[in-house]
Amino acid sequence: MGIIAWILIGLIAGAIAKAIMPGRDPGGVIITMIIGICGALLGGWLGKVVLHVHSINGFFHASTWIAAIVGSVILLALYRLISPGRTRG
Q1: Which of 6, 59, 58 is nearest to 36 (CA)?
Q2: Cα(47)–Cα(80) distance, integer angstroms
Q3: Where are the domains of the chain?
Q4: Closest CA to 83 of 45, 35, 42, 20
Q5: Is residue 88 classed exposed, middle or buried when 0-12, 13-18 and 19+ CB atoms within 10 A define those classes?
Q6: What is the pTM of this model?
Q7: Which of 13, 14, 24, 68 is most exposed, with minimal Cβ within 10 Å?
Q8: What CA–CA distance (Å, rounded) separates 59 from 1?
């Protein structure tokens, strides 16, 4: 996949992760994209290491999107734990 595809998957997976885990975050679209792209990489790596499957197959494969979303949710949870300035409530 090309860089544009990774950015698009990252943006969408990050937005879906924020929809799954609603709340106030100290980040905007750029942070969402970074979390999504890194989440896609994390999800693909976890799928390969833990489940022994190649989960990043292509842009239109469900395994790519599932891995990206799961990885994004994990990274968003970690981001919320360590990010400064987040108000609890």
Answers
A1: 6
A2: 23
A3: 3-20+27-82
A4: 35
A5: exposed
A6: 0.75
A7: 24
A8: 7
Tens digits of residue pLDDT in 23-61 = 776 677 777 778 888 888 888 788 778 877 665 666 677
Task: Identify which of 42, 48, 49 has the alpha carbon closest to the alpha carbon of residue 68.
Answer: 42
Q: How far apart are CA 27 and CA 84, in angstroms?
A: 11
Helix/strand/coil for 39: helix
How wide is the angle at C-alpha 70 spanned by C-alphas 80 and 47, nearest 5°?
Answer: 130
Q: Which two tokens stand for residue 8?
A: 């698009």
CA angle 34/15/79 to nearest 5° reads 50
Question: Are 38 and 77 spatial neighbours (Cβ–Cβ below 8 Å)?
Answer: no
